[in-house]
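Fold this sequence, please.
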Amino acid sequence: MSSLVFIGDLKPYKEQVGGARKKQYQRLLEQADRYASYQLPAQHPKESTTYMGIAIMNLALAYRLSEEEKYLSEAKRFMEAVLSYEKWGNAHLVNVDLSASWILFGLCLGYDWLKPYLNEEEKERISAKIKHHGDIMYQYKLDTYGHGWSTNYYQNHNWINMTGLAAAGYALSEDEERAARYRSEAKKNFSRVFSLLADDGSNYEGVPYWRYGGMWLFVYAHLLKVQEGIDYFQTSGYLKNTFYYRLYQSCGDLEQQMNFGDCHDRHSGHVPCVYYKTAAEYQDGFAQTFGNLVLDEFLEAEARESKIKPGILPEAAFEFLWYDPEILEKQLSDLPKVRFFEDLGLLYMREDWSRSSKVLTMKCGCPGGRKQWVNGWDLYRREGVECLSLSHHHPDNLSYIFARGSEYLTCEDGYNRNIMPDNHNVILVDGQYTDAADENDIYVSSAQKRLEKDPLYPIEEKYRGEVVHLELDGSMVIYKGETSGIYPEELAMKEVSRLLFTDQLSFFLFVDVCVSEKEHIYRIISNTDMPARKQSGHQYKYPMETGGMTYTVFSDHEICSDQYTQEVVSVMTTQEPDKVCKVSINTLAFQSASPVKKQMFMECFTFDEVHTEISYEGNELFIRCREKEYRLTFGDEMSEITIEVPNENGERKIYRIPSC
């Protein structure tokens, strides 16, 4: 049997459709059958057409495996539709962005896989269309080198568009000179991409874009491995570790995700084909377990609730090809409950691996992650290449998200193109957080403002956050982030830090320290799904269905509080400018009663089912929980903190966290 682009030898796959791959095969056929009900418009619709390209792939594979004529007929119907459109895409970057690249990729695979079943006229028309759009994409990449998606090496548009061009390079066997240009450009692009990605697998855009765009890093790596034997799976730290970034950004129920960054919804998070590919490449039974779990239990909800299109269902062909039946499952409960991703400064912990678990995640680091921030500015200075595009990465240093089971308490703002300072669970100084506000790419815009004032300003060194202390000691976690560098310089901030302390999430405590040369009003933000009910003093109650939760705040200066609702409304894609995403968040804020130079806030979250007592006296905070007493002592400079923790022998272990 002849070698097929992206597949190689089809025979081993075909032999397993009734056995080892039967489940994945049936899912592929179910997806292929859905396309019969699709009404394909005669003119390019005023919406994204990404679904058309992957439909061709699914239908072509379904035909090659089943030999049922209905799938060949449907594949030709979809190919005929995209051939009839003069342009691919709508409203923005027509012919040179996502709709065009998804179609190009799918059409190329359909062309290659179905060649024996196409007449000469069909082959000529398809080939000509691939060349036409391939040339447009290729020339755009060359013409815009240095800015836009052509050099946004960390951004999903670059990955998807260049994978579409690469597919054209492998499908056009009849035009080797043109095909070689496409392949070469893609290889140059991805050699830089994979060298620049975070080695710990973390993704600054957040889980929904990890599942939408990050999948294409696996698609290209697989394409290159099959076609040329070049194996990024063995050389890329990102590919090796990124499954664990995804797993350790799961909600307690494992179905939803913790929504840092641009998140259209909480169900856009799963890519079982990537889990299967991870399992196959790295003999990873945990990834195999997660892939099976999604297909067995989460598929329907993800397909129904996700706002990211084309969504999880059309990925059936990837699942079939990437599933390795030889990989044995491993229980997720064998994994650690805490994981730290150093590049992004991202901490994640769960109470246990049950589906009702408490989950807390927190972050503090460089915009886009350390590796991107440092290398991005280096490329800009050395080559004039703009590769920093952080519009999907929100200004959320020191922010946190807490959930329990399927229920969220603290939350982020979802998908947002005009970000305001109080959209995240952060610390504000005179109502400010970054140099820029109420716009899309907050971090880059803020950095540009600094550089406009001083072109020699060491932006990569000073405009950043940092995790300055981390202790992972059994069930006990201490994490401290400091991010004074991102606040406007005129505020003269010397320290803005947040320390997290918890013992297996039976409670969790934040100690926030603000120090400046000037007097300010300091304000801490807690955004939640539900409004809080005021109790007494500075204590509020959240009546969660999974168990009541109390939020208590202390400070070394007088504080006051207020509560209000924010509504975030944003266009989800420029391909469909009339479609918006709306999210309502409830904001509870505590702030200085009057301007001060230094202030400390202590925020304690406790749970009704675990009797907990908290008291703050002078320079000490006491927490009594599960028959243990924890004591935090604050030094003269406030940020010098000593934590005493009882151990199993009744002795007290002491942790000293120095000042920043």
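Residues 120-143 form the longest helix (24 residues). The longest strand covers residues 507-520.
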